C-alpha cells in the first residue's frame, strides 16, 4: 500500500530510475505479478496505473555459464549493483518513511 501511495502522489522519481538508459540496459523491465485492473481505492484512469497495478517490483539479471566462469564476472556484478542502487535507495526511502517523508525507524 505504501509504495502505491507514493506512486499515486508522484511517480516521476521511480520512472526516472527505471527509464534510465544504463539501468534499462542492465536490468530491463519489471517482472512479477500485477493486477488486471486498478487496486482497490485507486483510480483506474490514473496516469501511473501501469505502476499502481504491480503486485511485485522485481528485476532479474541472468547469466550464462560462460559469463559465470568469466574473469570479468565480478566487474559485471559490481556494475550491475551500481546500476540498481538508485532503485534500492528509492525503495528504502519509501518503505522507511510515512507519506510526509517522516522516518518510521
Describe the structure.
- With 105 residues, the protein is mostly helical.
- The chain is 50% helix and 0% strand.
- It contains six helices and no strands.
- It has helices spanning 2-9, 12-18, 21-27, 49-52, 65-68, 73-95.
- The chain is globular, with a radius of gyration of 16 Å.
Q: Give the mean pLDDT.
A: 95
Question: What best-fitting shape do the alpha-carbon axes yield?
Answer: globular
Helix run count: 6
Low-confidence stretches: none
Main sheet properties? none
List the secondary-structure elements in sequence, H or E.
HHHHHH
Tell me the strand percentage band.
under 5%
Straight-line distance between termini: 18 Å
CA gyration radius, whole angstroms: 16 Å
Structure classification: mainly alpha
Overall strand count: 0
Q: Work out the helicity level.
A: 40-55%
Question: Any key phrases for this structure?
Answer:
mainly alpha, globular, 105 residues
Short description, anyone?
This protein has 105 residues and is an all-alpha fold. The protein has helices spanning 2-9, 12-18, 21-27, 49-52, 65-68, 73-95.
Amino acid at each position: 500500500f505504501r509504495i502505491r501511495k507514493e506512486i499515486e502522489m508522484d511517480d516521476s522519481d521511480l520512472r526516472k530510475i527505471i527509464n534510465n538508459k544504463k539501468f534499462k540496459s542492465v536490468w530491463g523491465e519489471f517482472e512479477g505479478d500485477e493486477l488486471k485492473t486498478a487496486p482497490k481505492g485507486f483510480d483506474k484512469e490514473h496516469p501511473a496505473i501501469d505502476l499502481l497495478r504491480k503486485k511485485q517490483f522485481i528485476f532479474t539479471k541472468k547469466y550464462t555459464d560462460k559469463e559465470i566462469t568469466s574473469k570479468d564476472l565480478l566487474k559485471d556484478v559490481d556494475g550491475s549493483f551500481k546500476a540498481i542502487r538508485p532503485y534500492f535507495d528509492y525503495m528504502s526511502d519509501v518503505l522507511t518513511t510515512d507519506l510526509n517523508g517522516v522516518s518510521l525507524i
